[in-house]
Amino acid sequence: MPEQTLKTESFDIALNDDLRLRGRVKTSGDGARKPIVIVAHGFRGHQDWGFWPDVTDRFAARGYYAVGFDFSRITAAEDGLDEERASKAGTLSQELLDIDAIVRHALEGRLPFPEEADPQRSALLGHSRAGGSSIVYAGENSGRIGAVVVWNGGASPIRSSGEPDLSPLQKAVALDYEANPARFDTAKHFAELSQPALIVQGDGDSERLLSFVNRLQELAPNQTYASIPGANHTFNASHPYEGANEALDSAFEVTIGFLDSKLKRGQ
Predict the structure, then answer these.
(1) Measured between alpha carbons, how far is 102 from 37 in angstroms, rounded to an integer?
(2) What is the pTM of this model?
């Protein structure tokens, strides 16, 4: 069977303070409207890190309008913005603004191939820190997001602004979190989500994240949880990418099964 050819096109969104978002849309190009899945990389990642190009390819091949992007903190560094502005771009508050811009552009048909996007069916997938941001965003925007998936994430930052030897970025993140504790209470948001959510967690990840997932299960037993045996924080993938592995395949398949059941029913 020949390999499927996907359509791919880049986009660039201008934000305030000289910040930008750059990303790519991938789709099968068959002309049909598809559920939108927006994938958000972790704090130390970027849209081309490790498994992300493969994952967005897989979503597109399986009938999704797949959107990957770099958070503005990545483009700020690439564009040579000064350290203060680049550090502010790394806060949770800015991460939520970034997600909002991507979601609005996708739902309003302002990204490439808009004729293939169904704004009535959309999902957010966040890895690591972006998992928590995806939960917060979905909780604050229930009318825009139909489903949420978290890969190995969701817990809040652990550094205090009073700690010595913080980098400007770490300081900015800590101060932002301390100024908005209620807003960034991901466990509370998760417990109150009206949308279906899936938590995919590698059982070889940090004890902190494993404990957080246990707490989520207690707070929201109605949601869906999947444990990936032997998987670390990146589902045993690395950068540069060396190809898929059993843990990553398992994480993807449980994710696509969940999203199909929530966004493709009756299709």
Answers:
(1) 11
(2) 0.96
How far from 75 is each of 10, 45, 217, CA to CA, in Å? 14, 12, 36
DSSP letters along 170-214, please? HHHHHHHHHH-TTTT-HHHHHHT--S-EEEEEETTS-HHHHHHHH
DSSP 90: T
Spatial separation of the C-alpha atoms in residues 245 and 228, rounded to whole Å:
12
Please list the pLDDT of the chain residue by residue as tens digits (267 residues): 346 799 999 999 999 989 999 999 999 999 999 999 999 999 999 999 999 999 999 999 999 999 999 999 999 999 999 999 999 999 999 999 999 999 999 999 999 999 999 999 999 999 999 999 999 999 999 999 999 999 999 888 778 999 999 999 999 999 999 999 999 999 999 999 999 999 999 999 999 999 999 999 999 999 999 999 999 999 999 999 999 999 999 999 999 999 999 999 755
- Assign a CATH topology to domain 7-263: Rossmann fold (3.40.50)
